[in-house]
Amino acid sequence: MKIMFVVPNYHCGGMEAIQGPLMNLGPLFAASGVIKAGHEAAFLDCTAERLDATACMERIEAWGPDVVGFAARTHLVNESGRMAKEVKRRFAGVKVLFGGIHATFMHQEIMDDHPAVDFILRGEAEVTTGMLMDALNAQAPLDSIPGLVWRQDGQITENPTADPMKELDSYRPAYHLIENWDLYRNHINGKRSAVVQFARGCVQKCRFCSQWKFWDTWRACSAQVFADEVESLYRDYGIRYFLMADEAPQADRETWEALLDALIAKNLEGAIFGTCARTKDIVRDHDIIDRYAKAGFVLMLLGAEFTANKTLKAANKEARTEHTINAISLIRGAGMIAMVDIMLGWNNDEGEVLETLDNLPALGADYVCFFWTTPYPWTTAFDELSNRYGASKDYDTHNFMTFLGDGVDQRKMERKLIGFYFLYHFNPLRLFGGWFRGPAPRRTMYRQMFTLGTRRCLAQMLPWLARFIEPRADVKMMHWCKQDTRWKSGTVPGKNA
Ligand code: B12
Ligand code: SF4
Question: How many C-beta atoms lie closer than 10 Å to residue 189's C-beta?
């Protein structure tokens, strides 16, 4: 049996504008289980290749799969639905499978709204996709496949979900399915890049967050398996930038130290790592923070989220502003870049956005990423947030770039964000410190990010200039996204657009 995993063509700026169109790791993990079960798998990344619907269908036809598996994160789900309909229209007998976080929690709605979907696999899909392919091959009953939701003769059946995978070493991403690694050059330093995953899950339960609920428990693969995988990506495919998909890779100190040691032992010259980190773990690791840098970590992303302690408390964030300040100073002191995530609009109030901008310099971060609070339907903050913003099922714009409430003039506020960028980064002390102080990897990356950020901001402020310095659609940021209705009409900017 043959399955082709498809990532639909979707661009909304934000992290992609900074990190580049990195690969969606979910399908590559699921593919590993399919291959292990003795079936064939292929991976088609329409985002990275910028393929429109026609080009995508041509590629599916050329490979001739029995099943097409679409990645269904929230912002992708409608585009995946449109592609699924096209698959059904063009290729009789081909089955359509959805998987990913949105499909996991919103499976009933997907089955109702997208009649082209035959199967949904909820949760982790390495083992279960293999089981589904086996069952389809043998025309066996489907009721023993955990996590499967399926449609047959107009009837929808839901199987009980699977337990979280205990052992992560046996299923590693099928990176060999990527044919053209040059599609994954990040925008910061232009190097070939890969998303990698060491651990799954988080030990916190922030109210706006999906991740702890999705993975359920925290687990890691073994340090040696991960370090070997990194080495193989480095040597076989020339990867130099590794972005960790982990929520909280440092949650268990012993496991994390083993990973640092394994990476240090590999001594991969020029390899750079970026990862999310919890404030608490950084503070805990004050005595080994230099080893992070020695292992190749340069970009550390802290989810600071809010600058007001009362909002942090309301969102059930464990860290308070003073802890974040401490963690940032430790990261910078160890010669790494401290980048923070800030969520805007929680209270649907412009005054709060402005207050956040006033308070931000006190954190002392090197870079700040702004996101608009987005209420995902299965999170514990959903009722509160959707009451404030008004409910929205417009999933194309559930992308952190579009504010769904009406208490904030997004366009006006984003001009303030750009103003903040220039005031913050052109401050002579920060400019000098960033460009000329610290170890070489930090200095180089700081300069690269500074140049990229300045170009991005100029392009937003002066759209006529954007045509020359930022001709690509994926650099559109924030309010541009809200205005662009092409998402809704199914003609996401693609290769032929
Ligand atoms: C790395 C990353 C990125 C990278 C790479 C993006 C990419 N192509 O994957 C970059 C920086 C570019 C990025 C950008 C964005 N991201 Co992002 N990103 C992540 C991150 C940190 C890791 C993703 C990952 O690899 N996970 C590991 C894999 C193994 O998990 P998984 O995808 O869930 O896969 C498992 C199952 O779901 C299932 N599965 C997944 N797909 C499929 C498909 C089939 C057919 C089947 C059967 C099963 C299956 O099997 C897998 C193995 O068990 C996650 C947070 C996280 N820790 O997951 C956010 C996350 C995925 N991102 C998110 C968002 C919102 C975005 C942006 C919209 C933000 C922005 N505006 O900048 C953009 C969108 C870019 C785009 N064009 O799509 C959200 C999505 C929320 C949601 N409900 O859908 C997440 C979950 C973060 C969050 N805080 O909630 N991101
Ligand atoms: S610390 Fe981060 S990953 Fe963990 S629950 Fe909070 S937001 Fe989610």
Answer: 18
- Calpha distance 119→66 (Å, rounded): 13
Cβ contacts of 82 within 8 Å, gap of 6 or more: 8, 53, 490
Where residue 305 falls (left for φ over 0; alpha for ψ -120 to 50; beta otherwise) is: left
The pLDDT of residue 471: 56
β-pairing verdict for 241-244 and 272-277: parallel
Q: Which CATH superfamily is domain 2-158 in?
A: Cobalamin-binding domain (3.40.50.280)
Render pLDDT for 263-322 as a digit per residue (tens, 0 to 9). Answer: 999 999 999 999 999 999 999 999 999 999 999 999 999 999 999 999 999 999 999 999
Radius of gyration of the chain (CA): 22
Question: Three-class SS of residue 70?
Answer: strand
What pLDDT, on the 0 to 100 scale, is given for residue 280?
A: 96
* CB distance 323 to ligand 2 below 6 Å: no
Atom of ligand 2 nearest to the CA of 317: 6
pLDDT in tens, 8-30: 998 887 888 888 889 999 999 99
C-alpha to C-alpha distance for 165 and 368, rounded to whole angstroms: 34
Strand 2-7 relative to strand 95-99, pairing: unpaired
DSSP secondary structure letters along 125-145 = -HHHHHHHHHHHHHT--STTS
Ligand 1: residue whose CA is nearest its atom 22: 245
Q: Which of 75, 129, 131 to mutate to test the pocket of ligand 1 (most atoms within 8 A of CB)?
A: 75
| Residue of minimum CA distance from atom 1 in ligand 2 | 204
Ligand 2 atom with least separation from CA of 205: 5
% residues pLDDT > 90 (the chain): 84
Domain with CATH 3.80.30.20 in the chain: 185-461
Kindly report, as residue ranges, where domains of CATH 3.40.50.280 are found in the chain: 2-158
Confidence band (pLDDT; 50, 70, 90) for 246? very high
Q: Are 41 and 174 in contact (CB under 8 A)?
A: yes
Does the domain at residues 185-461 carry the CATH identifier 2.130.10.10?
no
Give the distance (Å) from ligand 1 centre to CA of residue 77: 12
